[in-house]
Each structure stands twice: as C-alpha cells, then as structure tokens.
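wait is this the right file?? whatever heres the structure
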C-alpha cells in the first residue's frame, strides 16, 4: 500500500520537468496525473466485485506485476502520449492489486490482531502521501526516469515476496486453520464484525452478476449517492492543490526539485499528525461539529494562502492545510461506510473511484487555473468553491444528522 500510495503522488514534482521535456504547456501537464486517476477509476468499478470470486493472492500478484511493468515503462516514455498510456495502465493495475491488500488482512491475520493490521496499512498509506513527493523530487534530481525505475523495481520485488510468502486466498476456503492460526469461520466473523472495507466473500453459487445487483442497491440509495458526491467534491479541491504545489513553488519561488521535496516533507508531516491525532478530537466533538470546524479552518487558510510572500510562509500554510485534511479525512470514510452497511466493500470501491475521479478532473482543471491566474489564486479559490459545495451536499443529504454526541 505504501508503494501504491507513493506512486500516486510521485508525478507532482516532475510536472515542470516533464512539461519542458515534452514541449507541452503547463495546462496540459495535468493530464499525466489524470491518466493514472482515470485508469484507476475505470478499473476500480469492476475489479473489486469481480475479485471476490477469485483467489485474491493471484489477483494481488497479477495487479502488482502489471503495476511494476507500467511504472517501469514510464521511465522510457520519450513522448507525451506514451507517458499518458503507461500512467493509465499503472492506474488500472493499482486498482486491481491495491484493494486485495485490505481484503487479505482478515484472512491471514489472527482475529485479535486485525484492527492493528488495518491500522498499519492505513499508516502506510498516510506515510506514502508524506513521502511520495519528496521521494520523487530527490530521485528526479538525478534524472526524471529514476523515480519510475525505482518504484517499478520495488513493485516487482513485492510481487516475488507476495508469491513466496502469502498463502492462497480463495474466496471460500475450507474450514481449516489459516497460516495465522485462524479458522475460516473466525475470518468470516472478523469480516462481519469489523467496520472496514473488507466484507464476507460471496458463495460461488451466487450468480456472477450479483455485483451488479449490489451496485444497483447502492446507487438507488440517495444518501449513499450524496455522500459519494460530497466526497468527490472534496477530493476535487484537495487534488487541485496537491497536483500543482510543485508547479506553484517552481513558478513563483523558483525552487529546485530538491527544495520542493524538502518543503513537501514538512507539508506531509502535517497530514500525518492530523491523521494520527485528529481522531481523538473528532471522537469528542462528533462528526458534524468536526467536519464544520475543519471546513471552516480550511476556508480561512485557502483565502490567505495565495498571499504567501515566500516559500517558507507557503509551506507553513500548506502544512496547516494538510494537518486539517488529515483530521477530517477519517470522517469522510466513516460516512461512506455508514450509509450502506450491507455493501461496505462496494462503498469503499466507489469511494476510491470518487477520489480518483476528483484527481482526474483536478489535473485537467488545475492546469488551466495555475496558468490563467497569478500565483495560487485560481487553484486556492476553486478549492474553496469545491469545499463549499461538498459541505452543502453533506448537510442537505442529512448524513450529518445525529452524528454528534
């Protein structure tokens, strides 16, 4: 999960370099991030339900093998169309392999350690957001190809480790002890008891189109649709900022790739702190109050951010933004899981699709905003509009009612 998350944020600091190399305007460079997101969205809508009827180990290894190859080939993309193709294929492969990590935990981990394991995977994803941009920046200071070659090589190594160490993960294993010592019955009980993205596996006797019926039930739920729309709008604004931090720092402050990477370390630390410690505060305040407080602080920060007179102030402002984002992110995931308790896995897949759809659209719109408006004004104020709409959708849907203690 750390590798997948790192690759997601790998390209942001490379956009100025790739724009110059491909001789494309900055507005078009956003398509490099969008291509990955588009591939992820398309594959996520199908891969999750389909993989429920197959050995998750094979799906995981196959997905990561494709991910390793596509990412490695990005390092040899000498033309803009080739880069778009390989990033698209990397997104498709990530959507196939990534969800199997969550789904495998209750099968291979003892029941009493499942929550802890879920936390480790979640922390890996958060740290990847912290590390993705600086890793990309530091490796790209040698050559722009190196980030893709390193991530591709590490992904291939993970494929080999997974193939050798992970047990078979059939959808309905016989009632015998797993490698971790849990029985299949205990694993099924864990999946039912834990409010995670992982659900009990369907019987092979169920029709193959059962996942279509599951999607139909979710999409007929107005509150579920509203929560997904609100989450999409939030991520639309969020990725508009994340995708073009490097471009802003390079354009306005003339920072090098190494300096951008250093700034992103501090920005990422803010996100990590918010993710780790924010849950305690939100438990005291409740979801509704926490979300209103978080959005209010973000509005104020984004209003002031474009006026930052130096990269130091810009970094401080973005660090505070990411701290608040880390604080409210678990609230979105909780709302996604609570609107359709019988289809939590499907809601997780749709939530991922909404996130990457937001990233895709943000890459396209953000490229135009960063060139059409001075400094960071266009992106910052567009993000405020997206957040206002997101909060309005959540409030109007009634999903926040009764969520405070």
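ok assuming it is, sequence goes like this
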């Amino acid at each position: 999960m750390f590798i997948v998350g790192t690759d997601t944020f790998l390209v942001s600091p490379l956009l100025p370099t790739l724009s110059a190399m491909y001789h494309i305007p900055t507005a078009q460079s956003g398509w490099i991030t969008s291509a990955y997101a588009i591939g992820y969205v398309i594959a996520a809508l199908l891969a999750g339900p389909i993989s429920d009827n197959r050995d998750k180990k094979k799906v995981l290894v196959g997905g990561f093998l494709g991910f390793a190859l596509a990412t490695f080939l990005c390092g040899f993309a000498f033309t803009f169309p080739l880069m778009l193709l390989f990033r698209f294929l990397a997104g498709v492969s990530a959507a196939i392999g990534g969800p199997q990590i969550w789904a495998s935990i209750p099968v291979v981990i003892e029941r009493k350690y499942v929550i802890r394991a879920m936390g480790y995977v979640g922390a890996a994803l958060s740290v990847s957001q912290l590390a993705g941009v600086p890793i990309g920046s530091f490796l790209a200071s040698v050559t722009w190809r190196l980030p893709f070659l390193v991530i591709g090589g590490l992904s291939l190594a993970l494929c080999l480790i997974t193939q050798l160490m992970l047990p078979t993960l059939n959808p309905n294993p016989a009632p015998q002890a797993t490698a971790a010592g849990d029985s299949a019955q205990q694993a099924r009980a864990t999946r039912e008891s834990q409010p995670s993205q992982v659900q009990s596996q369907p019987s092979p006797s169920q029709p193959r189109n059962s996942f279509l019926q599951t999607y139909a039930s979710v999409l007929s739920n107005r509150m579920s649709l509203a929560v997904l729309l609100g989450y999409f709008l939030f991520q639309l604004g969020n990725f508009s900022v994340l995708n073009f931090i490097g471009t802003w720092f390079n354009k306005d402050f003339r920072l090098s790739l190494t300096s951008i990477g250093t700034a992103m370390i501090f920005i990422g630390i803010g996100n990590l702190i918010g993710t780790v410690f924010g849950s305690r505060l939100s438990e005291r305040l409740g979801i509704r109050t926490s979300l209103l407080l978080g959005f209010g602080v973000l509005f104020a920060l984004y209003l002031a951010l474009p006026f930052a007179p130096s990269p130091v102030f810009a970094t401080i402002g973005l660090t505070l933004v990411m701290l608040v984002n880390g604080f409210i992110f678990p609230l979105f995931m909780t709302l996604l899981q609570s609107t359709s308790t019988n289809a939590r896995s499907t809601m997780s897949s749709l939530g991922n699709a909404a996130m990457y759809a937001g990233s895709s659209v943000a890459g396209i719109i953000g490229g135009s905003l960063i060139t059409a408006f001075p400094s960071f004004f266009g992106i910052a104020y567009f993000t405020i509009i997206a957040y206002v709409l997101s909060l309005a959708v959540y409030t109007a849907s009634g999903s926040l009612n009764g969520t405070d203690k």
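The two ends are 33 Å apart (CA to CA). so i think its the right one actually
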